[in-house]
Design goal:
The complex is a heterodimer of chains A (547) and B (278). Chain A folds into two domains: 2-271, P-loop containing nucleotide triphosphate hydrolases (Rossmann fold), CATH 3.40.50.300; 294-514, 3-Layer(aba) Sandwich (Rossmann fold), CATH 3.40.50.300. Helices cover 36% and strands 23% of the residues of chain A. Chain A has helices at residues 42-49, 52-55, 88-91, 111-121, 126-139, 155-167, 185-198, 212-217, 245-259, 265-271, 334-341, 372-382, 388-398, 414-426, 444-459, 471-477, 495-501, 503-506, 513-521, 525-539; strands at 2-10, 19-26, 31-36, 60-67, 70-75, 82-84, 95-98, 173-177, 204-208, 229-233, 239-244, 294-305, 308-319, 323-327, 348-353, 356-359, 432-436, 463-467, 480-485, 488-494. Chain A starts with a strand and ends in an 8-residue tail after the last helix. Chain B has helices at 28-41, 49-64, 69-93, 109-135, 138-148, 153-181, 199-226, 244-266, 273-276, and strands spanning 98-102, 105-108. Classes of the chains: A alpha/beta (547), B mainly alpha (278).
Chain lengths: 547, 278
């Protein structure tokens, strides 16, 4: 169903290939999970299979690609670049594509129109369209959204509608590029279940994904939901492991972790070299002693947005040296709380303290300058700091951005932009740093880099508030947790006490397997999880990888 | 997602739907064509009585068709300033008998007649345009243009995607300004929710908005390709069919304009460029 031979892809003006000889064969009805580090070319591979590269995204290509019996790329002569032989739109008659951002995939005003449009463009008779729209929406659990305007959907709802729009066309091949990356746990679980249902012997799927526990948990009985075959891409898209999922995750788990790839919890634990969690040495967690003074204090905050009370009497003290996590489902008021704390949203109640820096979920919205260096130096320069340049250099080095200091910030990768956003706000000496979903959609390496940075900011005496759905991040980094539901505080207290109380599940945030296991271990979840992560990376070695 | 996307209500819940006006039930291509014809007919009279009479009739018909006052007020607010500038220029630049002197400039009788007429015509056409724009469903419009005006499949899809992007633009502008305000050093804002208005920051925010929007548009273009846009003859889920109501709408709108003009001509109130010597 998918045949890729000697595929090479090179971006314009690049010195190296992003894919340098990828070979892959996928049989009809096979479901394949593609793993690899950031930059290994996973998304490029999927976009080439869909015909997007090089037709909509310019690139030079070599090799041959055939999908669903259609030649996608073919050599134009011996040693010469390959050329597209089927347009993306024609390929779409057999190939469905779902990417991570629902807002880039919803192009029409209403849900029904969105799902119907793909059928219209594929020439499906008008009399069949209504039934197929209903069938597709039902298949992804979105039948109740049929009359909604797409602009009013939540991220999880939007992604399920986008999936319905893909499935309605009954594609023989489904290309899924991190379909749950930007969703909250409930949304991710819903999409994972919908994808599980959309598989089957008549359809071939290729899935690139970080959040493996959600897909694993979508299987019957809450496990076994991952595709049956795993392909691991190494540097520049070379296939370094390929085989049954259990075998590859078992054999190459450590190497995958070292590459920066997420693993399902069971595979991560196995990759650490321990037979059971108790055998893993917990990482030392410095004692954080008594809480420091309150740097920012909010009492009885009430916020109205869109005619609705989204925050209702919430109080929070941000203390020096502490990380406070704010958790809750979409619509619980988390982002409104951050904006109110930053003074960017009108609010009733009292907020006392200095200016707080805020790192938003979409870092590109915060960019102000034309080079990475100017971006980092912008704040200190505006504040008139004499050492602005030196501080910028130090921040660039601290966040691993020195090598791209002259680059255009808009052209950085998602992970780099996130580090740049952190560097740009922390260089300004704000006493309080607020971060909205700092680890959303990140691979394991970038995730850890963000977690270490946030903890580091608190350890140097700042107060940190992070809004997140990522309960593992909360368990590893936070000191306190505030749980919001419908704009009200459901619980507020030390992290382990809140996580053990079961209140998160009540707020729609079930504990992931890793956190459940670490809490049950009893040695301190933060230390245990960091210990597993360190042991897993230590155990990873390229020699351990092989087909 | 934690933050509500641009254009969404904070909780992602559906906004209540506006009541569908009688105009919204008509075929959009017919509505647009009728608007064009009426606007062309209005180029003929330059007196104030014709546009004033038609403006009164338009407001009455719009209210009868359940168009809210707020929509009508939006038309006045949007086109009122332009109408005033048209009036001011014509008052003092037309030949004719002087009727007053203002700030050293002579106001003529023809200037008053033509200026008032053109200003009222501006308000009338603006009100018609706003009422029509508020009543048009973009999907029906594109489907109708595809069927009746031979708009291509790619063009139709691009128009709808552009509508989505524009729909999100105001909320995205606020989000970008909030995001950039969060980078500012110095003391806490004295008034919660007040965003900086310095030209430098507004220019930077506009550039960021441009880049973010272009990127979204590019991603949507790729999405449309992967949905098969332009891969062959398309079908239409909700085909646009012309009905008797569409013919009635066109006949009533164009007929009323012609009849009003004829009656005013018989009464000696209709003026044209030829009769005023413009």
């Amino acid at each position: 169903m998918i045949e890729v031979g000697g595929l090479r892809v090179r971006w314009p003006h690049a010195d190296d290939d992003v894919l340098a000889g990828t070979d892959l064969d996928v049989r009809p009805g096979e479901h394949v999970l593609v793993l690899g580090a950031s930059g290994s070319g996973k998304s490029t591979l999927l976009r080439t299979l869909a015909g997007v590269v090089p037709q909509q995204v310019d690139a030079q290509t070599w090799g041959r690609v055939q999908v669903a019996g259609r030649r996608v790329l073919a050599p134009s002569g011996p040693g010469r670049p390959s050329v597209p032989t089927t347009t993306t739109a024609h390929l779409a008659r057999d190939v469905g594509t779902l990417t991570q951002d629902p807002w880039a995939q919803l192009c029409l005003p209403t849900v029904t129109d969105e799902v119907a449009s793909g059928l219209e463009h594929r020439g499906v008779p008008a009399a069949e369209i209504d039934a197929r729209v209903r069938e597709a929406l039902r298949a992804v659990g979105a039948a109740h959204l049929a009359d909604r305007r797409t602009a009013t959907l939540s991220g999880g709802e939007g992604q399920r509608v986008a999936l319905a729009a893909v499935l309605a066309a009954r594609p023989r091949v489904l290309l899924l590029d991190e379909p749950t990356a930007l969703l909250d746990p409930a949304g991710a679980a819903g999409v994972a279940r919908a994808l599980q249902a959309a598989g089957g012997p008549d359809r071939t799927t290729l899935l690139v994904e970080h959040r493996l526990d959600e897909h694993d948990g979508a299987g019957p009985g809450g496990t076994g939901g991952l595709p049956e075959r795993v392909v691991v891409l190494g540097a520049r898209g070379r296939v370094v492991a390929d085989g049954p999922t259990a075998d590859v995750l078992g054999d190459a788990g450590g190497h995958l972790a070292a590459l920066g790839t997420w693993l399902p919890w069971a595979a991560e634990l196995a990759a650490s070299g321990a037979r059971r969690l108790a055998d893993v040495e917990a990482a030392p967690v410095p004692s954080r002693g008594t809480p420091g003074p309150a740097l920012l204090e909010a009492r009885g905050l009430v916020v109205h947005r869109g005619g609705r009370r989204v925050l209702d009497g919430v109080s929070l003290a941000v203390r020096a040296g502490r990380v406070t996590a704010v958790v809750g489902l979409n619509g619980s008021g988390k982002s409104s709380l951050l904006l109110a704390l930053a003074g960017l949203l009108p609010a009733d109640g009292v907020v006392r303290g200095g200016r707080a820096a805020l790192v938003l979920q979409r870092p590109e919205q915060q960019l102000l300058a034309r080079t990475v260096r100017d971006e980092v130096a912008w704040g200190p320069r505006r504040a008139g700091a004499r050492d602005a340049e030196a501080r910028a250099d130090a921040a660039l080095a601290r966040y691993g951005l020195t090598a791209v200091a002259g680059a255009d910030p808009f052209r950085l990768s998602g992970g780099q932009q996130r580090r740049l956003a952190l560097a740009s706000v922390t260089v300004c000496d704000h006493e309080v740093v607020l971060a909205d979903e700092p680890t959303f959609g990140q691979d394991r390496a970038t995730w850890r880099s963000c977690a270490v940075s946030l903890r580091g900011l608190a350890d140097e005496g700042r107060g940190v508030v992070l809004v997140t759905h990522d309960v593992r991040l909360v368990a590893e980094v936070a000191d306190d947790v505030l749980v919001l539901r419908d704009g009200r505080a459901l619980a507020h207290g030390p992290v382990e006490a809140v996580l053990r109380s079961g209140v998160l599940a009540g707020a729609g945030l079930p504990l992931p397997p890793a956190v459940r296991a670490a809490l049950a271990d009893g040695r301190g979840a933060a230390g245990v999880l960091a210990g597993v992560a360190a042991a897993t990376v230590r155990a990873g070695a390229p020699a351990g990888v092989g087909p | 997602m934690s933050a509500a996307p641009a254009g969404a209500s904070p909780d992602g819940r559906a906004a209540p739907r506006a009541r569908r006006t009688a105009l919204a039930r008509r075929d959009p291509t017919v509505v647009l064509a009728t608007l064009l014809v009426v606007s062309l007919l209005l180029l003929v009279p330059v007196d104030p009585w014709t546009p004033l009479t038609l403006l009164v009739l338009t407001v009455a018909a719009a209210r009868a068709a359940a168009v809210p006052w707020s929509t009508l007020a939006r038309g006045l607010a949007s086109f009122g300033p332009f109408a005033l500038s048209v009036l001011a220029v014509n008052l003092v630049t037309r030949p004719g008998a002087p009727v007053a002197r203002v700030a050293g400039l002579t106001v003529t009788d023809v200037g008053v007649l033509v200026g008032t007429g053109l200003a009222l015509r501006t308000v009338l056409v603006g009100t018609l345009a706003v009422v029509v724009a508020a009543s048009l469903d973009p999907v029906r419009l594109v489907a109708s243009l595809h069927r009746h005006a031979r708009l291509g499949a790619r063009g139709a899809a691009a128009l709808l995607a552009a509508h989505r992007v524009l729909e999100q633009l105001p909320a995205r502008w606020v989000a970008v300004r909030q995001a950039q305000a969060a980078r500012l050093p110095g003391p806490r804002p004295t008034r919660a929710g007040a965003l900086p208005t310095s030209p430098d920051l507004l220019v930077r925010a506009a550039f960021t908005l441009l880049v973010v929007t272009l990127r979204q548009a590019q991603q949507m273009a790729v999405t449309l390709e992967t949905r098969g846009v332009g891969s062959g003859p398309r079908t239409v889920h909700r085909p646009a069919r012309l009905g008797a109501g569409d013919a009635v709408l066109a006949a009533v709108a164009v007929g009323t304009t012609v009849v009003v003009g004829a009656v005013l001509w018989r009464l000696g109130l209709l003026e044209t460029w030829a009769s005023v010597g413009g």
